[in-house]
Structure formats: structure tokens, C-alpha cells
């Protein structure tokens, strides 16, 4: 794997140099405690019981026999649980009504929580939970997702639909037209650390030790849900073993808090892997139609991307796959629309690069098909349609370095030597091919507060309610603070993930480090002004605080994006239909890179997920039961080490012009376009287009 950086930004301090994680030693020695393993005296354990019908009502929960079992302390359910009020607006709007857990007898999907058995030990709770009998009045359900099925609608929410120009006229006037349908399956986050929370009442405050993407977010929602004074809720999330969009307010925190209230002792709730399949959200399957029309020279006249996803019957979440191409390629007529259909399934949610991941598979595959029709190189086709301003918005780009990514990527991948004709390269039983695709992701930022303390011993302490979900955010903030303070990183301690530190953006939308870094540099600027006065530092130190709400409010309207170019080489076994990825290269223009070591891991992790998405991942629902078939990591396949070849990720110099540190955000772009690059390589190897993921052996043969 390469260890060079292409970037040429003059870097004088800690930012831009490779640093291992500041908590790395604690993590690899087991000293770092995750939410499910922090010890507490008098700790009780809750075990979830989930519905076994996909729609209906709970008739009865037969608690009595279970309450007589060893160690069992309580059986919470809709008949006896503390009341909550889910009618509020949280950080991301109205919550998924799953927060109103145990508030009514309705079952809207298979795997809905119907009871929590609490016992002295986790084993006792589990045994009792598996013994608990729940009776239902089942109703008929419908979980069958397909393109254009009855009930599909275009949501009213902003941004679901964009239309510029006369699409049908431009299609009719086009020399080359691609009209193709693509599907992606239901996919799950499958974080290595399943959701876990311990709740307790301490001196009149509700304290929750959690695994989440934002302790401000979770604390705020718990306070609203339980009608508590926000100051009386404290949420901490010191270490997180993966999140990917799934770790917000979920039933584990709520039920741990309910049980801690009822029993007046600390209660821990840990989800099993299987339970995460219905309780934490997932990526909706998509059915997409892409129509592209071009002149003979490849210039787009018509662009139409229609995305369809599913949602639950209780809440609307839309996987906006059709949004992907809005900033990318210009066309005389440019139409996009996202549609959705409610079914008797759990509500989907954000999952790494929501919208962009499935959307890029469809659109970047369609562009490859168009390049073939035009007799053009796929990179040249993209260059031909590079817009001067946002194709839909008309707004200028804050910076746009897509073509530089393709140039650098093509050079390093050896693209110039490629024979574009498919099905020509053979090595024994393997057909070989290469493919490419565009990656892009929006550059966002959210308001945060931070505090920086100059300690009497010459060190500095940063406090911010950031979350390090495994990305290395804590280390990145250490480097950012060190450079701002003009001291070595060893003199800076960054404390994160404690809602008592004040409001901050969550780790999501690839905007964590940018949002928190902005606040940290602002607090340091304030501190340096105070220290410039030559004051002596008292024993408790000198603390400066920041709040970026106003500064971010002054940002003007622009198209802000990261970009990237994905390349893949595959070998396809003509006897078994197996696709092996042989190598991948991703070149990204994603702002200033804070820590090359962890940034490279983040890109490679996303690209690895692209392999998974292209070849392995697929949650299968049984229409008869309404539940999953094989809801675990044996049945739900993800790329294993043996599936992952040499992956190189690198970047070009692309500092954000507005961010104080030059950050854009790198959390999600690594997966974007990766599956399309692989699918395009499979076409180049075999001559067959694969428009349905995953590209399983039975589909290849
Ligand atoms: Mo990510 S899907 O923005 O948590």
C-alpha cells in the first residue's frame, strides 16, 4: 500500500503528518471500555424480546411464569412501561416512532420490540426472554418491494424532485440513448460493536453510557422523550466500534432508561447482532431508472434519474439515490426524482453515503453504457460533460477537482493502455477487465461549541461533544488543536463524547471533523487572545469557549462537494461465475487531509464496502413471514479479508477555501462509485452488463 501523498499543501505542523490514534494503545490492550463493558455496582441486565409477526396487535404478554425465574427483576412491556412523549422535533426532525417503544399494542413490522426482560445477569435475562410467551392478533402484511409497485409516491419534502428543460424532446433529439433499470438490495450497517447502553440515575440526573454518533443528539432526544430538563440528562460515548448512520436515538438507550427508572438501579441493554437487523435502521433497497441522451460527441442533452426506495408504514425516510447526479453532469434537460413506498418493514435510515452509494451505482453504470454507445473513453465522456456551475442549482462550486482526480488516477492505474473492447482478456478460466466511476459527496458543516483550557502545567485540554466512531476523529482534533495552539500534539489532550461539554454536531454526513475542527480553532483563537495579555495561568487554568453558529450562518450559497475517481480491476471465473476484485485505486479531492494514516483507512474502508456492495451484501426478506432470512453475519455476507485485494487510496491537493483548516470531509465518499467501478469492470471482462446488485455467481453465469 502506498504511503506517499500527492498533496502539495505546505504543511508545517501536526496537520498533514501521520499519527497513530491517541487512544490506540488503550483500544488494543482492552483498557478502552465500550458501552457494554463499563462496570457498575448493582448493574442489572435487560434483554429485548421482539415481535414474531410483521403486523398486528399484542394481545397479551405472559409475564408471570418469567417473573418466577431465577434472577428476573422485571418484565417491561406496553402495559406497564413508563410513559414517554415522542411528539417532538429532534436534531434531525421528527423521530422514528420506534422511540415510542412500549407505548401501545400495535406491531408495525417483524422484529418490533414487545418486551424487555430485566435480570441480575445477562444470562438470566436472556433465558427468561427466550421463555417469554407473547400472544398476537396477527394481520396480513406486505413487504414486497418492486419498481413502481402500487402505493409508490413522490414525497412533498424539499429536494425530492428537480426538473430543468424538456426531457422527452431532448431524448428524441439525442444520437445515443441509454435507458436502463438498476436495483440495489436492502443493506445493513452491521457495525462491529452492536448497540449498547447503560443507564442510571445519579443525584437526580439520568446518566447514559452509550455507543452513539452524537451524545448531544441522544441526550437532547432522551430529555424531550422523558420530558426532563435538558440539564438533567448526561450522555457519554467514549469509544464507538462503528456506526455508519445507525447509532442515533434507538430503543436500547430508551429502554435502559425506563428500566433504570422502574428498578432504581443501573440497567444495561445490549442488542444482539440479529436484533440490530430490525432495530437500528438500514439502507432501503432501491429500484432506479436512468435515461441519458447524448449527441454523437458524448455531450449530454438529456439526463433523467428516477429513484425508488421503501419506508415503513409509521415514518417516512427516503433513500435519495436520484440526488447523486445533481452536482455532477450538465445536460440541456436534467430531471431527477425520488419516490418511496410504505411497507410493513422497519424504517430505513442513513447508511454510509445515503443516496450517493446506490445512486452512484446506477448513474455511473449508465454513463459507462453511454460511453460504450458513443465509442468514447468513459473518462473522456465525463470530462465532456463537466459543468461550469451546478447543473441544477446554477450556483458556483466552492472548488471542483473531479478531473484532476481522473487524471491522477488514470496515470497511476495505467488506464491509457486499456483496450475498451469487452470480453477480450483471458487468463486461464478468468476473464479480466477494468472499470472506473465518479465519486462525489456534499461538503456540509454544522454548528458546534468547544472549550479549550490552558492548564497551569503548560498542557492544553480541549472539550467538545464530538464522537469518534472509529474514524480517528479524536486524533484529528488533537492535531488541529495542536497546530492552532502552535504546540506539539503531545501537549494537547482532547476529551470528547460527553453531552456535558455542550452542544456539537453529530458524527454524520461526513461533517464531524469539519464541524468540530471549526469550533476548536475558534476556541483556540479566543484563548490565544486571552493568553496574549500575558496573564499568569491559575491552578484551574484559563478556558476559552467558542460557538460557530453565527460564523456558519454567514456562509453564502454555493455548491460544496468532495470528488473522487474510482478504478477497479476484476477477474471473473467463467466456470463458477465468481467475481474477484484484483485491485482498486481511489483518488480523492476531499479537502485538506488532517491525518494521512487514518484518512487512508477511512477511504480504503469505504472502498472495501464498495466491494461488499458490488458482490456480497443483500438482506433477503421472506414475504411469507415478513422477516429476514439469515439476519446475522453468516447469512448476510460482507467482504472478508480474502475478498479484499490491494486497495490504494490517495488524494490530490484540494484545501477547502472556506474552512479554517481547509477540511471538506472524508467520511463517506470512499464507498461512492466503488460498486459501479467494479460492475463496469465486470462488463469489460465479460461483455455482460450487471444492473442488479450484488453481482452474485448465479447472476454472472
Ligand atoms: Mo453517516 S450515514 O452520515 O452517519
Automatic annotation (TrEMBL):
Highest rank taxon of the organism: Bacteria
Segments forming domain Aldehyde oxidase/xanthine dehydrogenase a/b hammerhead: 29-140
PANTHER family, per the entry: ALDEHYDE OXIDASE 1-RELATED, XANTHINE DEHYDROGENASE
Signal sequence, start to end: none
InterPro entries: Ald_Oxase/Xan_DH_a/b (IPR000674), Ald_Oxase/Xan_DH_a/b_sf (IPR036856), Ald_Oxase/xanthine_DH-like (IPR016208), AldOxase/xan_DH_MoCoBD1 (IPR008274), AldOxase/xan_DH_MoCoBD2 (IPR046867), AldOxase/xan_DH_Mopterin-bd_sf (IPR037165)
Keyword Disulfide bond: no
Record's keyword annotation contains Oxidoreductase: yes
Entry protein name: Xanthine dehydrogenase family protein molybdopterin-binding subunit
Species annotation: Streptomyces sirii
Keywords carried by this UniProt record: Molybdenum, Oxidoreductase
Amino acid at each position: 500500500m502506498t504511503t506517499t501523498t500527492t498533496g502539495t499543501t505546505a504543511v508545517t505542523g501536526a496537520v498533514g503528518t501521520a499519527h497513530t490514534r491517541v487512544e490506540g494503545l488503550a483500544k488494543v490492550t482492552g483498557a478502552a471500555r465500550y458501552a457494554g463493558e463499563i462496570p457498575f455496582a448493582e448493574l442489572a441486565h435487560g434483554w429485548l424480546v421482539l415481535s414474531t409477526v410483521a403486523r398486528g396487535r399484542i394481545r397479551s404478554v405472559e409475564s408471570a411464569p418469567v417473573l418466577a425465574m431465577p434472577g428476573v427483576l422485571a418484565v417491561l412491556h406496553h402495559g406497564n412501561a413508563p410513559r414517554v412523549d415522542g411528539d417532538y422535533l429532534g436534531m434531525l426532525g421528527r423521530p422514528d416512532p420506534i422511540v415510542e417503544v412500549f407505548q401501545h399494542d400495535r406491531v408495525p413490522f417483524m422484529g418490533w420490540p414487545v418486551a424487555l426482560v430485566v435480570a441480575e445477569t445477562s444470562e438470566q435475562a436472556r433465558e427468561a426472554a427466550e421463555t417469554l410467551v407473547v400472544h398476537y392478533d396477527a394481520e396480513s402484511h406486505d413487504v414486497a418491494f418492486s419498481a413502481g409497485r402500487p402505493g409508490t409516491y413522490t414525497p412533498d419534502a424539499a429536494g425530492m424532485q428537480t426538473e430543468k428543460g424538456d426531457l422527452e424532446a431532448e431524448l428524441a433529439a439525442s444520437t445515443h440513448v441509454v435507458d436502463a433499470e438498476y436495483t440495489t438490495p436492502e443493506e445493513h450497517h452491521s457495525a462491529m460493536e452492536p448497540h449498547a447502553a447503560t443507564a442510571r440515575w445519579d443525584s437526580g440526573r439520568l446518566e447514559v453510557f452509550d455507543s452513539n454518533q452524537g451524545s448531544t443528539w441522544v441526550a437532547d432526544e432522551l430529555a424531550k422523550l422523558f420530558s426532563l430538563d435538558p440539564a438533567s440528562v448526561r450522555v457519554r460515548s467514549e469509544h464507538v466500534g462503528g456506526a455508519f448512520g445507525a447509532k442515533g436515538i434507538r430503543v436500547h438507550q430508551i429502554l435502559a432508561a425506563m428500566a433504570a427508572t422502574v428498578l432504581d438501579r443501573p440497567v444495561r441493554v445490549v442488542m444482539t447482532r440479529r436484533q440490530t437487523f430490525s432495530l437500528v435502521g438500514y439502507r432501503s433497497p432501491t429500484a432506479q431508472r436512468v435515461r441519458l441522451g447524448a449527441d454523437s460527441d458524448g455531450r449530454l442533452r438529456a439526463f433523467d434519474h428516477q429513484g425508488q426506495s421503501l419506508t415503513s408504514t409509521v415514518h417516512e425516510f427516503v433513500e435519495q439515490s436520484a440526488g447523486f447526479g445533481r452536482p455532477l453532469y450538465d445536460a440541456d434537460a436534467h430531471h431527477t426524482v425520488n419516490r418511496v413506498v410504505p411497507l410493513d418493514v422497519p424504517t430505513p435510515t442513513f447508511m454510509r453515503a445515503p443516496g450517493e452509494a446506490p445512486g452512484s451505482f446506477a448513474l455511473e453504470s449508465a454513463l459507462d453504457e453511454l460511453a460504450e454507445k458513443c465509442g468514447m473513453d468513459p473518462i473522456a465522456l465525463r470530462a465532456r460533460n463537466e459543468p461550469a456551475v451546478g447543473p441544477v442549482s446554477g450556483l458556483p462550486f466552492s472548488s471542483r477537482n473531479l478531473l484532476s482526480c481522473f487524471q491522477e488516477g488514470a496515470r497511476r492505474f495505467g488506464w491509457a493502455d486499456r483496450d475498451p473492447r469487452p470480453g477480450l482478456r483471458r487468463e486461464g478460466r478468468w476473464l479480466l477487465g477494468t472499470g472506473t466511476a465518479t465519486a462525489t459527496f456534499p461538503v456540509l458543516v454544522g454548528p458546534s461549541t468547544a472549550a479549550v483550557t490552558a492548564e497551569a502545567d503548560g498542557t492544553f485540554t480541549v472539550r467538545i461533544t464530538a464522537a469518534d466512531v472509529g474514524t480517528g476523529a479524536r486524533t484529528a482534533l488533537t492535531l488541529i488543536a495542536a497546530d492552532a495552539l502552535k504546540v506539539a500534539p503531545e501537549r494537547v489532550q482532547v476529551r470528547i463524547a460527553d453531552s456535558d461539554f455542550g452542544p456539537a454536531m453529530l458524527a454524520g454526513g461526513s461533517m464531524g471533523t469539519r464541524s468540530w475542527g471549526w469550533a476548536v480553532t475558534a476556541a483556540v483563537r479566543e484563548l490565544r487572545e486571552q493568553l496574549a495579555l500575558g496573564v499568569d495561568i491559575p491552578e484551574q487554568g484559563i478556558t476559552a469557549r467558542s460557538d460557530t453558529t453565527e460564523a456558519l450562518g454567514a456562509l453564502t450559497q454555493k455548491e460544496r462537494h468532495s470528488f473522487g475517481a474510482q478504478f477497479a480491476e476484476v477477474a471473473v471465473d467463467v466456470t463458477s461465475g465468481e467475481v474477484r476484485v484484483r485491485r482498486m485505486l481511489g483518488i480523492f479531492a476531499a479537502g485538506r487531509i488532517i491525518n494521512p494514516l487514518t484518512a487512508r483507512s477511512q477511504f480504503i474502508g469505504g472502498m472495501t464496502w464498495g466491494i461488499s456492495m458490488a458482490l456480497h451484501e443483500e438482506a433477503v426478506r421472506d414475504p411469507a413471514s415478513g422477516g429476514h432470512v439469515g439476519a446475522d453475519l453468516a447469512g448476510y455476507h460482507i467482504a472478508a479479508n480474502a475478498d479484499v485485494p490491494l486497495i490504494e487510496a490517495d488524494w490530490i491537493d484540494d484545501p477547502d477555501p472556506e474552512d479554517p483548516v481547509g477540511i471538506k470531509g472524508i467520511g463517506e465518499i470512499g464507498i461512492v462509485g466503488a460498486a459501479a467501478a467494479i460492475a463496469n469492470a465486470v462488463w469489460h471482462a465479460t461483455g455482460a452488463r450487471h444492473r442488479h446488485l450484488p453481482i452474485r455467481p448465479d447472476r454472472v453465469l
